[in-house]
């Protein structure tokens, strides 16, 4: 049991064959994979997912990048899932990410930063529901 967060392995990490290595780190840190799906976002759907950032200067680039390759979406379960997962992935900018974090190891830039993690319980639920139907989220 425990509570849940949502993650996406981003196109840069998928393209570099790091799905397995990243998922191994997630499981080794005590997260249980509740749901998992590989898919590709259209630019429009990427725009919907990142709608909170639509006034940011990096929004269009972000939508192009996130729709430029396959992603792996997952719902993860662990006590204190949201906060613990953000600790595991590290800072948005890999130059600032701590040693041993997923972004320190796999991210290429502040945009192509290997992985997403929800920033609140509420957003974890919203983001998980963006990718998974109720019957897929046991
Ligand atoms: P994430 O935190 O998962 O969600 C928002 C994404 O926007 C972030 O990861 C990066 O991929 C991207 N992003 C955030 N800040 C910047 C920035 N300053 N320049 C380019 N991309 C950014």
TrEMBL record:
One of its GO terms (biological process) is CTP biosynthetic process. It is found in: Cytoplasm. Its EC number is 2.7.4.6. Its cofactor is Mg(2+). The keyword Transferase applies. GO terms for molecular function: ATP binding; metal ion binding; nucleoside diphosphate kinase activity. It is an enzyme of class 2 (transferase). The keyword Acyltransferase does not apply. NCBIfam families: PRK00668.1 (NF001908), PRK14545.1 (NF011116). This is Nucleoside diphosphate kinase. It comes from Marivirga atlantica. The gene is ndk.
